[in-house]
C-alpha cells in the first residue's frame, strides 16, 4: 500500500502526446483498462449533404469552450448553449503551467503566478512547498468567470454560435441519421428573465454541463458520488495581500474537512477561501468556518464579497458515451481525488472529444456514430485512468485520520517529493526518478505511515 501511495504522490501520469492541429491522426485502438470495446471506423458513414455536421455543446465552462472551439475550427457547425455567462464556480482556480501553452492562454487572464505553497497539518505544522521550482515555473491562479468567458469568446471567434440559454431536455433520434431535438430557453436581450422556448436540431451532442448534467440524465448515464465545494471570496487589505502575492495555502484536518482539504488561494485583489467534503455535506459551513479560523491571522479584517457553492464529482460516471452523445469535464466525472483538480482535465477532455468528432466526420462532411466518440473515450481512459485510481488510493491512505494527515504533511517536506510532484503536475507527464532517491522516499513514506499509525493508537487510548 505504501508503494502505491508513493507512486501516486510523485505524480503517476502517462505521457500525453500533444497534437493541437485539427487535421488529426488516427488514435490508437488499444483496449480500455477496465472494459474492452471493438472500435469500427465509420468512414463508410453517409455524407452530410447541403450542410456540415451539426454539433451542440451544452455548457460553457472550460470543457465546453475548448470543445466548441475545436469543433468550429474543424469545419463542424457548432452551437454552444450556456445559461450563466458570468458563472463563478467555487473552485480554487489553479491551472498547471502546461495548460497555458497547450491552450494558448494569454497571461493577462492569470491573476497570480504561485511559486510557493504552504501545506498546513492538523496541528498547524506548516511545510513550505515550491523550493524546487525553476524561475519560469509557476501554478496559475485564475477566476473561472474570466477563463470561461475567454474560452467561449474564442470559440465564437472560430465560428461557433454561442447561445445564452438554459438546456431543458432532448428528444432522442428515431434512426441512425435522424437529428437530436434540443429544447432550451433562450435568454436574449429581448426576452430577458422570461426566456423564449426554442428547439434546435443537431447531429451530435457534447455534454459539458457540470455535475448536475441534464445531458447525462437524458442518456441515463448513471449517478456518482459528489462533493460539495464551498468558497468565499474575501477582500483583504493591500498589506495582507502582499503575503499572498505568490503564495497559496492548503489546510488539512478533521476540522476543515474529514475527507478533503481547505484552501486559501490568491486572486487579483482578493483571496478565495474554501473547503469541500463528500462524507459530511451537511456540515460544510462548519468546515468553512474552521478554514477561516485556521487562516484568521492572515485574513483578519477581510470582507466577504461573494459566496459560492457547487457539487464536484468524485469519480467518472458509469456511462459517458451513448450513440452520438458524449460527456466531458465534470459531467463525465473528470475531477481527481486528493487534489480536486478539474480545470485542465475539463478542457482537455472537451478538446479530445471534439477532435474525435472532427476526425470521424472528416471535418464535418460525414455523419458520425458511437464508434467515433468511443475513440475519444478509449484514448482518455488509456491516458488518465491510472492517475485517477492512484490518487483515489492516496486520498484513502493519507486523508483517513489526523495522524495520517500529519504523515502526509511530513512527506511534503521532502524536496525530492516536491520536485517529482510539481514536475508531474505542471507538465502532466511521468517524470523519471532516481532509483536511490526513490528507495529513500519509500523508506521515509513507510516511516511516516508507521509513526502515524502509532500516534493514532495512542490517541485512541486517550479517548477510551
Automatic annotation (TrEMBL):
Gene Ontology biological-process annotations: chlorophyll biosynthetic process; photosynthesis
Reactions it catalyzes: phytyl diphosphate + 3 NADP(+) = geranylgeranyl diphosphate + 3 NADPH + 3 H(+)
Functional pathway: Cofactor biosynthesis; tocopherol biosynthesis; Porphyrin-containing compound metabolism; chlorophyll biosynthesis
InterPro entries xref list: BchP_ChlP_pln/prok (IPR010253), FAD-bd (IPR002938), FAD/NAD-bd_sf (IPR036188), Geranylgeranyl_Rdtase_fam (IPR011777), Geranylgeranyl_Rdtase_pln/cyn (IPR011774), Geranylgeranyl_reductase (IPR050407)
Ranges where the FAD-binding domain occurs: 54-86
Membrane-spanning residues: none
EC number(s) given by UniProt: 1.3.1.83
Keyword Oxidoreductase: yes
Family: Belongs to the geranylgeranyl reductase family. ChlP subfamily.
Protein name as annotated: Geranylgeranyl diphosphate reductase, chloroplastic
The species this protein was found in: Buddleja alternifolia
The organism's taxonomic lineage, starting at the top: Eukaryota, Viridiplantae, Streptophyta, Embryophyta, Tracheophyta
